[in-house]
Amino acid sequence: MKDDINEIIFTEEELRRRIKELGEQITADYAGKSPLLIGILKGCFVFLADISRSIELDCEIRFLTASSYGFSSVTSGKVKIEKDIDFDISGRHVIIIEDILDSGITLTALCEYIMKRVPASLKICALLDKHARRQLPISVDYLGFECPDEFVVGYGLDYAERYRNLPFIASLKPEIYS
Ligand code: IMP
Ligand code: MG
Fold first, then answer.
1. Ligand 2: distance of its center to the CA of 14 in Å?
2. Whole-model pTM?
3. What does each of the 178 residues of the chain score in pLDDT, given as a tens digit?
4. Does ligand 1 lie within 6 Å of residue 101's CB atom?
């Protein structure tokens, strides 16, 4: 697996430090509240595990599955939300926990879906933002890092369901995609 890596973009230590800061910021901003964290599967699973443990509040944690990529590194443009929400959102302070924001198509669809269920508030927390690739005007409230315009893997992010268990964020050698 490590032979497939082109370059490490964010190290374990950088991720650890930044996620602790984000958790502290959320803890301060939501003081006295019990936010509902909604993780977007599958890419969020490592980020959510770490950030949730740095949020010192009484949180509820739920998941939604959204997919637009299939086994490709280019978005299909159509977002499939795989499971209808079976938990109550109305009146809750919702924070979406997402691995990476790229075109913005996935998060725009998810925000519309959640807003229909009338939360008290809705914010987005994303580990990475490929701002240069945005197609829809959506912005992140809590951002880990700006990400270069490259396909990246690791720390929950996959290419064809592989590399999610790398402890850092990296780009892959070009020949892996061909
Ligand atoms: P968007 O709908 O184009 O914003 O894409 C967002 C989703 O695409 C993310 O939740 C990821 O699952 C996936 N994605 C986008 N860029 C990458 C990448 O560089 N590596 C792995 N997955 C990515
Ligand atoms: Mg995702």
1. 21
2. 0.92
3. 889 999 999 999 999 999 999 999 999 999 999 999 999 999 999 999 999 999 999 999 999 988 765 555 556 667 777 766 778 899 999 999 999 999 999 899 999 999 999 999 999 999 999 999 888 899 899 999 999 999 999 999 999 999 999 999 999 998 998 7
4. yes
Which H, E and C letters describe the chain, residue by residue?
CHHHEEEEEECHHHHHHHHHHHHHHHHHHCCCCCCEEEEEECCCHHHHHHHHHCCCCCCEEEEEEEECCCCCCCCCCCCEECCCCCCCCCCCEEEEEEEEECCCHHHHHHHHHHHCCCCCEEEEEEEEECHHHCCCCCCCCEEEEECCCCCEEECCECECCECCCCCCEEEECHHHHC
Q: Is the CB of 43 under 6 A from ligand 1?
A: yes
Indicate which ligand has the atom closest to the C-alpha of 69. Answer: 1
Set out the domains of the chain in order of their start, with CATH numbers: 13-150 (3.40.50.2020)
| Residues belonging to the active site | 102
- Distance (angstroms) between ligand 1 centre and the Cα of 102 equals 6
